Amino acid sequence: MRYYVSVRFHEEFIKVESDHITVGLTSKPVKGKANAELVKKLAKHFGVPASSIRIVAGRNSRNKIVEITLS
Q1: CB under 8 Å to 55, separation ≥6 — which residues?
Q2: Residue ranges per structural domain of the chain
Q3: Is the pLDDT of residue 71 over 90?
Q4: Domain 2-68 is classified in which CATH homologous superfamily?
């Protein structure tokens, strides 16, 4: 499944609304740390391994498209 993901910083939360997810991160967007935290949080939320989550578009943006392979 593909989801549109919006990222907010300085707070921790996950809000899922159909195909849109808003995620709060505490990591700074430096050297991929925020993307790594995003993948980790989504993996935990959906109960899948981190390898099942792929950032399709928006790697350097607050708005991303993420593909999650549910098995």
Answers
A1: 35, 38, 39, 64, 65, 66
A2: 2-68
A3: no
A4: YggU-like (3.30.1200.10)
